[in-house]
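dumping this here so i dont lose it
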């Protein structure tokens, strides 16, 4: 009799709790790892990386790149056809931390300035930005 009581009352209660839980995962449509079945964002979203490069550069004029007002690095190499990936030497890379776009500024010691904005892309792990 005890076993029947357990089977018909306790066991269904155990499953009733889990049936109401919403699936957790990355819900951001701009993230690389979005889970379309997730109903609750659990903070695991991963975003694109941006690589800033120059197709032509004078080695005596390194170009400093700033993202949202903070310097993140200096471009010291040239890639006429663009870098092969987001870790090419002499380039500057930035990993998105959220779905928000960034504003970037590239400057050289002579005062020439290039600017732009870029946003993460759910379909592109490595976004290449040619500053000059």
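and the seq i came up w/
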């Amino acid at each position: 009799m005890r076993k029947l009581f357990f089977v018909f009352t306790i066991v269904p209660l155990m499953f009733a709790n889990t049936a109401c839980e919403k699936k957790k995962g990355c819900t951001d449509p701009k993230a690389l790892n979005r889970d379309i079945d997730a109903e609750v964002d659990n903070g695991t979203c991963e975003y694109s990386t941006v690589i800033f490069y120059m197709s032509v550069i004078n080695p005596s004029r390194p170009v400093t790149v700033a993202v949202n007002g903070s310097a993140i690095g200096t471009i010291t190499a040239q890639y006429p056809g663009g870098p092969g990936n987001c870790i090419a030497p002499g380039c500057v890379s930035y990993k998105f931390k959220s779905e928000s776009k960034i504003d970037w500024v590239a400057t050289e010691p002579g005062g020439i300035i290039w600017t732009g904005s870029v946003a993460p892309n759910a379909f592109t792990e490595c976004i290449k930005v040619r500053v000059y």
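Strands lie at 24-25, 40-41, 49-53, 63-67, 70-75, 92-95, 102-107, 113-118, 126-130.
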